[in-house]
Amino acid sequence: MAYDSDLSFNYFGPTKIVFGANAARDVDIEMGALGGTKAVVVTDQGIIKAGLVDGITASLGGRCAGVFSDVPQDTGVEVVNAGAEFARKNGADIVISVGGGSVIDTAKGMCILMTEGGTLRDYNGVQLLSRPQTPHMVIPTTAGTGSEVTNAAVIMDKEMGQKRLLVENFNVPRMAILDPKMTEKLPPLLTASTGMDAMTHAVEAIHSIPHEPLTDGLALHAIRLLYRYLPVCVQSGSDLHARGQVQIAATMAGWAFANAMVGIVHAMAHSIGAVAHVPHGIANGILLPDCMEFNLEDAADGYAMIAEAMGVREKSMDDSEAARAAIQAMREFTRKIGHPQKLSEMGVSGKDIEKAAEMSLSDGSIVNNPRIVMDSAEILEIFQKTM
Amino acid sequence: MPIKAMTQEWMDAYKAAIQADPEYKSIAKDWEGSVSLVVNPDPAKNVPEPIYLFMDYWHGDVGEFVVCDKEKAESAKFVMTGDYARWKQVAFKELDATKALLQGKLKMRGDLPYVVRNIKTVNKVIDILGKVDTLWPDDNK
Question: What enzyme category does the UniProt record give (chain A) (predicted)?
């Protein structure tokens, strides 16, 4: 792929990564390296029941200021406010999040309030902060969101009836501990859907307008790892080598999309998630191949690189043919990992997709899509293919 | 004759240019709310003090366009802050405003999704800004 001669970009990825089976046991040592003396652990009830927090609190010993586990599936302003209050009361100076996207986003919101004070409603905007926030270590229990290395958090504000998007470079997690043992018990469907979330981050980072060589490199290797190891994880959850490779891929895809942004797949997934409560990873996985098809003419060179990464490009293929091969391979891949194929399987109705198509046009991600979308009818047509 | 940037005369010219633009009214029909631009000082570029600009946009019409004080600037629905050099890059379309926000080159208090939803309006006012014959503080004209 050729880049413009006037290529210019900023790449930002300050998170330290610690990887390895049982690496989470080193949480106390790593916490000290960040200057933390008392940690609040943020998690949810499911993670507690799965026994994933016990080893962490045991390692922390007297350095654990308490466990805040009241995080629901989609976090909210009140949850973040309560978490920050809990952390303050218990004298915490570092946050350790153990969980998936909702837990990590809650912790990101708490870090701001622990440093700046006030409530989350005081921070409505983009890049408002002017100093580093409370240190945050992330121990992901899924492999998909990439939130462990991004500057963004999405937090529901029920009272205002809207999702708040926090985007703050001063609030990127300082460290992520990728421990394959933490994802070992993830069931096959959740493994597949969170993995497709990561795959979508990687593909969208490649086709998005602000993509650049660093993000392309990260995204392409993420695709290689996911294509090879995600089916292994779905088949054999206890394969820690495969689990680890998928965790690494998700983090690489996180760095890629945090800098190159995402496009139409996310715009549509956010919208159908809001309208019909389709889980984000599943919506991404269902929509990805048809959105690639939609973008084909405007992103053929990027998809040709994806075909190479997947090993489906033959020598005789030009970029357009290779791009088609990548799309076909992506469809087959989602079937191979047992991922849902249709939004109708998720209870989505015709009215839902009409509403979601309108909403998608207003989603922030749409502006980065390589093919300019002017009319909600174009989006509705894609949605209809997934019904 | 170029007008000194970020002066009241320049704001008046900018407002007039927006009003005279044949496409602006229809493109901006959904936008409602004031926008303030805060220009951080840069003495090396002849911007010794912060500059506050307040602009009121309402469904394709334009209202108050003034150089103002900090308090008035902060009363706007959207408050965008950045270094002088960044704002100049935006005016010259060397820097995309949305990308600049996400990269931390500009800061914004306000609802980002609303801005993105109305990105055509934002791009249009930046286009028009580029057409105002301007003398920038660090120009050697």
Answer: oxidoreductase
